[in-house]
Write a structure and sequence with these properties.
This protein has 159 residues and is α+β, with helices and mostly antiparallel strands. It is built from 5 helices and 7 strands; from the N terminus they run E-H-H-H-E-E-E-H-E-H-E-E.
């Protein structure tokens, strides 16, 4: 298994894994499958080129089995976004490796904190992030793609 940052030529792989994630867990992300599936190829190429938001793919024999993204928001927070691992690879350590890549990028860019949003009702994800050193903050907001779902911010601070 290999984890690497995406480049423009990875756009089809990024699209494939992102759409798989949205089908598997439609209420876990800020965009709907329908919206993402309608993105033109050029938009996927821009996303894969790592301009702005950076993405990494977990690849097994060249096939994407997971993804993660990171971006600095308008509040100058380094955010972990778009985390997903295909069901067959869950529990194998792929997710931990993806999170470690984002933590390392944050530190390399001068950040000592990583933020993410998760629904506390998503027990598996919440538990996973707690094991990765994240803690819940008293910050809540509606999930953009499903406003009836409220997500809570979690924070990791470099020791």
């Amino acid at each position: 298994m290999d984890i690497r940052s995406t480049e423009t030529e990875d756009w089809m792989r990024l699209k494939q894994v992102r759409l798989a994630a949205l089908l598997d867990a439609p209420t876990a992300f800020g965009v709907s499958y329908q919206t993402a599936a309608a993105y033109p190829d050029e938009q996927w190429k821009v996303r894969a080129s790592s301009t702005g938001t950076a993405f990494w793919l977990a690849l097994e024999k060249g096939r994407p089995i997971g993804m993660i993204g990171a971006a600095v928001n308008s509040a100058h927070r380094f955010n972990l976004i778009g985390m997903w691992v295909e069901p067959a690879a869950r529990g194998s350590g792929v997710a931990t490796q993806l999170v470690e890549v984002v933590k390392a990028r944050a530190i390399a860019e001068g950040f000592d904190r990583v933020f993410l949003d998760v629904s506390p009702d998503n027990a598996r994800a919440s538990s996973f992030y707690l094991k990765q050193g994240f803690a819940f903050m008293d910050e809540w907001e509606p999930l953009e793609s499903h406003p009836h779902i409220t997500v809570q911010t979690m924070l990791w601070i470099e020791n």
